[in-house]
Structures are given as structure tokens and as C-alpha cells.
Amino acid sequence: MRRLPPVLIEDGCSRELLSLIRTILAACKEISFRVGQGALSGVLGSTLDENIQGETQKKLDVLSNQLLKDILLESGYVKAIASEEEDYTVAGNPDAEYIVAFDPLDGSSNTDINSLVGTIFSIMRAPKDSDPADERIFMQPGHQQVAAGYVLYGPCTTLALTIGKGTRIFTLDKTHGSFMLTEEFAKIPEDTKEFAINASNQRHWQPAMQNYVNDLLAGDTGPRGKNFNMRWIAAMVGDVHRVLCRGGLFTYPADTKDPNKPFKLRLLYEANPMAMLVEQAGGIAHTGQERILEIDPQEIHQRVSVILGSKNEVEACLGYHK
Ligand code: F6P
Ligand code: MN
Questions:
Q1: Is 188 within the bounds of a domain?
Q2: How do residues 8-62 score in pLDDT, each as one tens digit?
Q3: Does the CA dihedral 276-277-283-288 come out positive or negative?
Q4: Which of 48-52, 183-187, 278-282, 302-306 shows the lowest mean pLDDT across its residues?
Q5: Ligand 1 atom closest to Cα of 252?
Q6: Domain count within the chain
Q7: 106: Cβ below 6 Å to ligand 1?
Q8: Are residue 147 and residue 207 in the same domain, yes or no?
Q9: What predicted TM-score, i.e. pTM, was given to this entire model?
Q10: C-alpha of residue 115 to centroid of ligand 1, in Å
Q11: 189 within domain boundaries
């Protein structure tokens, strides 16, 4: 079994980018350890604060953010970072080549119930001669990402990673702390009978999504002519991992529950990296109107609707949106 560094070098990954990825993974190993300790590490439960997006912060959100932020800024490999848990971008080394956007702990409502959580990251090149304190350096469409990945803290710790040459899956060998290549080319099956959506929002969805899901639920006697199964982990990172492993459709569509917040998932550190991983594994990642990777971001915490996964099923869903 091969370790991560030689695999990435064979793929043409520069030394600088490899060092940056390894820096992120060093923090993720620490997070993996803390998550694995559960109540023993004293970090379950919430803080008294909210992040800029009005969400309660879990102690593990804050800890994970601090670990990633400190190690990245100290490394000298990043010009700036953007995080779900930081109101604004944070400037790093003015001479560095890369910028990183991350969700330090996705699905953090799962922390207290010993369920799936993970870290999602997106790496882009900083524009030449740009100001590290200027948040506009992050306003790049997702197709310009040079690498994207997530680390899922489950029964085992897995890394899904792409540098634009397919999506690979690595498993953390906790006996010596290395990520080992366990899936050379993740390939999302084109067809599926599995979908993931928070069905409690059904009455707030737009007609296109209402109609699509109604037809899935109608099963083999409905217009789709087959029975579908539903799965929902409540952590995008867990749901996307299932899609990468065995296919499926995952969506967090637009809804009218809160008129000020029509979308849930964040473009820069959730939708974009997942879209790159999914496309590199042969799937589709779309908003219903456009390919996620083509969106020009307007602000760092921007939200979008997300429909991703098995090619033929996403296309079927998009058919309802025309
Ligand atoms: O980061 C947002 C997130 O935690 C996703 O990981 C997940 O898919 C979603 O929110 C779940 O939110 P809700 O329980 O409101 O549907
Ligand atoms: Mn998240």
C-alpha cells in the first residue's frame, strides 16, 4: 500500500502544494485524535458563542478551527485563509502561492452523538501581487481550485483528495500516522436508487424539487418506475462520502423557510471542494441552474443550492428544473 506523498508526486503535485496538503493533514490528524477521544477530551458540547452565520459554535468547531488556522499561518505556505468559523479572511505570508478555504468541522451537530463529522478544504492559487488582507483574492470560481478534499472522522479516518487528476481515497493508519492510498480512482456509479435530502423541509422547497422527490417516493409504480431508498447523515461530508463510495444523489436545495437564507451550504468551503471531488469521480455537481464550479463568488460565506452525485440521477433531477 502506498503512502500519500509519493502518490501525489507521481501525479505531478509540486513540492510546495504537497507541503501545504501535508500541513492541513497534520491538523486533521490532531482533530481525528480529539474527535476519537469523545467525552474524554472535554470538548463535547457548545460554546456560548455564535459564528458570523448565526450558528451555535461547538467546542470542537472552535478547536478544529484554531488547530487549522495556527498550523496554516505558521507554516508560511498560505497567503490567506477563509474559514466557516472566521468572520473575515486572515492574512498569512505575503509571498506564499496558495490560499485555503475550509470548513474545520462539518456536521458538528453530530459531535455529541458520536456520529460522522469531517474537515473540508479547498486550495486555490493567490492572484499574483495580490494583497493577503484583501478578501477578493478568494473570489475565484471553483474550477480554479488546484486541490480539494475532506477528512472524514468516522469508524476510520478517511481522506478524499483531488489535485485535478481523479479523486483518490486514503485511510489514516493510526499505528504510524500516515494516510495510505486505499482507492486509486473513486468512480461514482452513473445510476443509483439512493437519495439524500432533509425531508423535513419539504413544504418549503420550490416546485421543481417537490415534483422530483414526489416522483422518487412514488417508487416502481410512479413515473420513475423504480423504488428509491433514502439516507441522511446530517453532515454533508458523510453524505458525500457515501456518494463517492457507492453513488447516490445528495441535495440541499433552495427553500423558503427563512426568506433571508434561501440556501444552506457555503460555496467556498463546502460546495466547491465537494463539487471538484465529485466531478473528478465522474459525477455532476450543480445548483439546478448552473454548474457549481462556474459560479463567480461574491463573498466568502456565500451560500448556494447543491445537487450532486450519480450522473444520470442528477441529470434526471435537473430535468425537473428546466
Ligand atoms: O455545514 C452545514 C451542515 O452541517 C451540512 O453538513 C449538513 O448537510 C447540513 O448542515 C444539515 O443541516 P440541517 O440539519 O439543518 O438539514
Ligand atoms: Mn459545514
A1: no
A2: 999 999 999 999 999 999 999 999 999 999 999 888 998 878 877 778 888 999 9
A3: negative
A4: 48-52
A5: 8
A6: 2
A7: yes
A8: no
A9: 0.98
A10: 13
A11: no
